[in-house]
Structure formats: C-alpha cells, structure tokens
Amino acid sequence: MAADEIRGAAQGSAPVPLSVLDLVTVGAGRTASDALRTSVDLARLAEARGFHRYWVAEHHSMPGVASSSPAVILAHLAAHTDRIRLGSGGVMLPNHAPLVIAEQFGTLEAMAPGRIDLGLGRAPGTDGATAAALRRTDRLNEGADDFPQQLAELTRFLDDDFPDGHPYRRIHAVPGPVQATSPGGVQSPHRPPVWLLGSSGFSARLAGVLGLPFAFAHHFSAQNTVPALDLYRESFRPSAVLAEPYALIGVSALAADDEKEARRQVLAAALNMVRLRTGRPGLVPTPEEAEAYDWSPMERDFVDSWNANVIHGTPDEVRAGLDDLHKRTGADELMLTANAHGGDVRLRSYELIADAYGLPAPA
Predict the structure, then answer these.
(1) For residues 86 and 116, is the Cβ–Cβ distance under 8 A?
(2) Cα 304 to Cα 29, 176, 307, distances in angstroms
(3) Which residues are CB-neighbours of 75 under 8 A, at least 6 positions away?
(4) Is the distance from CB of 349 to CB of 20 less than 8 angstroms?
(5) Spatial contact of 347 and 45, defined as CB atoms under 8 Å apart
(6) If DSSP codes are grouped into helix, strand and coil, which group holds residue 305?
(7) What is the DSSP letter of 248?
(8) Which pTM does this prediction carry?
(9) What span, in angstroms and rounded, lies between the C-alpha atoms of 127 and 40?
C-alpha cells in the first residue's frame, strides 16, 4: 500500500494537512435529510478548498447525530465528489461482523478507487443498551477485549489471505482480491488503508505495534492526547503500510465572522453535549435556546471545561489555536469537526478556516 494513500500534503500556510470529521448533526427544526444535504455540500466544499480527507463517524440512538450508517453515507458522498479521500472515523468494529465491514468497504473502494479509508474503533459509539441491541448480546466487554482478533480477521478478509486449513479459507469478501484470481479476473490495485482510532492508550499502542496510522479523538479526550501520541510513537514498528508513524487528531473548531457569534454557536453545541452526558440526547439546540437555558452550576462548570477544548472565534483566532495545538502535539494531520445547530454555520466555518490558511480557491 502506497504511503501517499495515508499521508497528505499541507495546503496554503497550514502546518499540516487539514481534513474534516462530519457527525451529520441534526439541529432542532431540521431533518436528517437536511443534515445529509449539508454533508454533500460540505464534502464538495472540502474537496474544492484542498482539505485532504472527509470522514464520517458511527453513532447510534442519538437524535442529533444522523451518522449511524457510515458506509451508506460514504457511498452517497462518493457519488457527489471526485478526488477527496472519504472514510470512516470510524466504524465501531465490535458492532459488526468483520466480513460485513470488508464487503462494505470493498464495495466503496470499487465505487471510488483509491479514495477510501477504513477507520476502526473499539468503543460502541452509543450506550450499553443500544450496543447490546446492535450486537445481539449483553457481553459488551467481550467485543472490546476481542478487538485485536477482530481486526486481524478483518485484515485477512480485506487481503483474502487466510492460511490453508483456516475455517474461513474458502470465504471471500467481494468485491475484493479474490476477483483477480478468478479466470479473466482483474482487480483494483487499491485496498482501503486501515486506521485505528482511539481516545486512550489501547489503540495507540496497538496501532504502533502493527505499524498502522492512528487517529486520536482530541475533541473529546484532550487530556489524553499527548500521552496517547507519545505511546503510539514509542510503540511504532515499521510495516508494509508505514515506515514512520502517522497520527492525526480530531479537533473541535468553529470559526465565525465575529467572536460573539462563535461563542453563541459553541454554547448551543455544549448544551447538546450536556444533555447527551446526562441521558437526555436530542437535536442540537439553537443558540437562542442555549442563551435562554437555566444552567445549573454543575452544568456551567462542564460547559466551561468542554468549550476550553473547542477552538473557536474569528478565523485568525482559530488559525492561531490550531497552530498552537499542532506545535503542542506534533500531529501529522488535523481533522476538524464543527458542531453547530445550522448547516450554514458549519459550511461558513470551513470556508473561513480555508481562507485563513490560504487554501486553494474553488475552481
């Protein structure tokens, strides 16, 4: 697998490649269809402005997040873009049979050759009861503990290289390499690169030992970012995939035309997170609702702590914050997620950040 399917190139004055993480957020008064239309617009914008990749994340049972089926969304985005890398950030592997994921992402690779990333996580992406419904079992820890074995099985399906005598030796993920070995078969030279995602040290170490690229969820686990990246780099062993470590971090970042508007938007997103963390998930509230909300002291403390890790403000302020974060972490890529009530606000944020870094102008 060529390293350039993993490593990107910085554009404009950005210190590293910039990418997009989309949760397909649904605001109050909006529909999932509205959110998915925004995702198409945002993917097109990201491609036109030189963002390197565009990932969607698997979440379940959250009214304000319409990204329960990453493979379906990625197929839709592939039909509306031409060049930008598309991927999962991530698929939660314990929720699925490895063969199913290999088939889904083999299909995506056939749709958009050389453009698909397969990012994998070991968390459920939801609460325990929903995870049990997804997996048809209540033994949830077993799925997380088995992650290395599930990963190995998925990789074997992607490469079609189970050894002789293995019970899955005659099972093939299609589309996939088996087609090249069939009479008259021709197979794409590309295979979706596997990334490991994490918010702690487990996947950081595993990614390092396996020589895989690593994506860390700085946007909700900021206190663990530097230790996890250090662990990844210390554990790294060169592989056929990578000669050197490559780590991106997910970053909450929202730019607006003025600082006050940015604060209003991130306050609404924080209220949504408060409700999620207290078992009341819902649609992303409007800034007006957040401003009128009667915050308890505990909620206010949470918001202050949460928003301290959201880089927001004017374009210059966001650029300065991203530059500082890059210097502190040494991340090889910054993947930006903008959580806000309105799709127009999110689109404007990425436009402003692209302008602040002098990213390519749309054709």
Answers:
(1) yes
(2) 26, 48, 5
(3) 107, 108, 111
(4) no
(5) yes
(6) helix
(7) E
(8) 0.95
(9) 28
Taking Cα atoms as reference points, which of 358, 363, 353 lies closest to residue 19? 353
CA gap 224, 7 in Å, rounded: 23
Are β-strands 18-22 and 53-56 bridged in parallel, bridged antiparallel, or unpaired? parallel
Q: Are 26 and 63 in contact (CB under 8 A)?
A: yes
pLDDT digits (tens, 9 = 90+) for 264-316: 999 999 999 999 999 999 999 999 999 999 999 999 999 999 999 999 999 99
Nearest residue to 49 (alpha-carbon basis) of 355, 342, 335: 355
DSSP 170-238: T---SSSTHHHHSTT----S--PPEEEEESSHHHHHHHHHHT--EEE-TTT-GGGHHHHHHHHHHH---
- Tokens encoding 122: 């070991």
- For residue 131, what are the β-bridge partners? none
Q: For residue 139, is pLDDT > 90? A: no
The tokens 């702690």 sit on which residue? 200
